[in-house]
Description:
single chain, 6 helices
Amino acid sequence: MRKLNQKCLYRIIDANYNRLKEGLRVCEDICRFIYDEKSLTRSFKAIRHEVSEIIAHLKFKNLIVSRNSERDIGKETIVSELKRDNLGDIFYANLQRTKESIRVLEELTKLFDKTLAKRLKNMRYSIYGLEKKAVKKI
């Protein structure tokens, strides 16, 4: 097994940070522009800004320098990513993407800063609660 270096960890964090923010933005915009849900919109936006503040502690430059999107072996689109029949499917897929990404960030930040990992864990549980509210309203 190849020796794991910090650049590899930053690359995983970068990919999941981007995926998390993108998923949150899709959910936020659906709540804002389609459903006019002010409370949900505000909650998604707050989480999006908080995760940026948390990840900033790892130095964005480290993440960007570690990025290798040109040679990423997992960037191909899979069939299930194209199967969206309605807005609910899009919202649900992005919420799942958000939860998966925040879990990866939570786990990997344990290697850098356990306090940040705990904040991400709390944020993950906030997303679970937000998901429940969204399902009731949307």
